[in-house]
Design goal:
By secondary structure, the protein is an alpha+beta fold. It has helices spanning about 35-50, 60-65, 80-90, 95-100, 120-135, 210-215; strands spanning about 20-25, 55, 70-75, 105-110, 150-160, 165-170, 175-185, 190, 195, 220-225, 230-235, 240, 245, 250-260. A 6-stranded mixed sheet has the order 1-6-12-9-10-2, with helices on one face. The chain has a 6-stranded antiparallel sheet with strand order 3-11-7-14-5-4.
């Protein structure tokens, strides 16, 4: 269980709302982890389609954009060493061990006050994309993105097969914009998809019309694989959940941003839970 008392007091976006409500996950005992890369990928695609109850698995960037998800490569290693940070942030600390006890839930670590983490470099890297697709009516450039958006929270989450609970219930994020960075995923990773509900239009999307958005069913679902070395950026109010891990492991960092102007933000009165 995530201890919200550990969340810094100056996070004012929506302090009372946790990010995940974890459920029981089921492991797949039939996976053969020593298969060659091509068979692993084929089995992964087939298994994930079954695991997500035939929910469409969207792989192409253009199709993701149509649904309101923007996929962006992580910075090069000289700017952000994803391998280093995956190893560093997924280490158990005494505080985490005290909070999680028997390791029943997915590993969670708040990193908002991590002194050496390159938050500014990452914001600059994603700034152009965020301004293009998620910020409307601003004259600010990528170099002044901090005037438009402020970092509200940041955490690392790590999934592996020693954990019993690896799913996240359907929820909204307490953010205006969420960046989900996949730092690493094992070759035998199966499951642990992010499943979205409905479509949410981005600001600039020539491939999506308002009419198409209006006709999209609110309860339509699609799944997004967590691709190592890439981030998916989406609206905080886009409903989503995490499906059960079936095999392997992955490590992600979640950065949540709110508009600096409270008149632009939709977070303050948002309820994150679905019943």
């Amino acid at each position: 269980v995530v201890d919200l008392s550990l969340r810094p007091k100056d996070n004012t976006c929506l302090q009372s709302c946790p990010f995940f409500v974890l459920k029981m996950a089921l492991a797949d005992p039939n996976l053969e982890g020593d298969q060659a890369s091509a068979p692993i990928q084929q089995k992964k695609n087939a298994h994930e389609s079954k695991q997500s109850n035939m929910v469409e698995l969207v792989e192409e960037d253009a199709q993701l954009l149509q649904r309101g998800i923007v996929r962006v490569p992580l910075p090069e290693s000289s700017v952000f060493d994803s391998t280093y940070w995956a190893q560093e942030l997924s280490q158990l600390t005494p505080m985490i061990m005290a909070g999680e006890g028997d390791g029943e839930n997915a590993f969670y670590r708040n990193i908002l006050e991590e002194p050496d983490f390159p938050f500014d470099n990452l914001l600059q890297h994603f700034a152009e994309t965020m301004l293009e697709y998620f910020v409307e009516g601003t004259t600010e450039s990528s170099s002044s993105i901090h005037k438009v958006l402020r970092l509200d929270d940041a955490f690392c989450i790590h999934y592996n097969m020693t954990q019993q609970d690896t799913t996240g219930a359907k929820h909204l994020d307490p953010s205006d914009i969420t960046i989900n960075m996949c730092l690493e995923a094992s070759e035998d990773l199966q499951g642990s998809l992010v499943q979205f509900y409905g479509m949410q239009p981005v600001v600039q999307s020539s491939s999506m019309t308002t009419t198409a958005m209006m006709t999209a069913k609110e309860n339509s679902k699609f799944a997004v694989r967590q691709k190592p070395g890439y981030a998916t950026i989406h609206w905080g109010h886009h409903p989503h959940e995490t499906t059960a891990l079936e095999s392997g492991q992955r490590t992600n960092i979640i950065l949540t941003y709110c508009f600096s102007d409270p008149n632009q933000s939709t977070v303050a009165n948002r309820s994150c839970y679905f019943t």
